[in-house]
Amino acid sequence: MEETRKTCSSEGKPKSKSRTPPTPPPPPVELRNWLDLPRDVTASILSRLGAVEILKSAELVCMAWRNVCKDPLTWRTVDMSNNRGFNLWASDLDKMCRRAVDRSCGNLVDINIQHKCTDDLLMYITNSSKGIKRLQLDNCFNITNEGLSEVASKLPLLEELEISNSLLSHEPALQVVGASCPRLKSFKFNHRWRYSWDWRESNDDALAIAATMHDLHHLQLRGNKLTNDGLQAILDGCPHLESLDLRECFHLKLGGELGRRCAERIKKLQLPHEPISKDES
């Protein structure tokens, strides 16, 4: 009985718990002062910002950043499309674009403008910058065929041109662009079929491209009203085409020989009924 009690008493004692040693604190994080970055690294970072972000924010951080933002080489690329978060009037954007062009001191090679470009602004840009190689105009409804024709002769080095969702649709302007820009390799001329009020067939754009843009490698004609005859002319007149985007070109019928010719010759072919993502529209 006594032996039993000893056993019970020993079993009734709480077992000692082994304690896990505390986790050592993480080593202190070494904070890097962005103001101490080398100038070329700072310039590389700032070059990823839009023009509005630089003029309204980045250049106000400190004197070192302001000096980089005043360097003409910072403005070889001017992106006026990224202005969300800044409540700006059209007149403000016009002035900021001109300021960015002025700061480039003629070094501008790439410019992207959305919504707020006019004939007058386009003339100012091309008068100030003779070396532009890439020009993007998206939703710029105030640019006219006459305005585009007038500045085309000032863009002899142009290699890439994008005009999306505009009111430009007459072949004389495209003929002037093709004749004035012999180095043009990429042309994007897009419309929104679903918002168009005139769906009648027209090969004017296609014939102008075929007649003057013989060195094109990449052509995007989303929402165009061309027919098989217009596409045939493009294939004949642009022998170097590698990519061709025909999405929403619903007058085309590519089930026969023309479709086979496109498939055999064009490395990247996008057909009329292929979808357009929200990011692309």
Automatic annotation (TrEMBL):
Classification via PROSITE patterns: FBOX
Residues covered by region (Disordered): 1-33
Protein's UniProt name: F-box/LRR-repeat protein 23
Recorded coiled-coil stretches: none
Segments of skewed composition (Basic and acidic residues): 1-14
Biological source species: Prunus avium (Cherry)
Gene symbol of the encoding locus: LOC110755502
Record domain F-box: where: 31-78
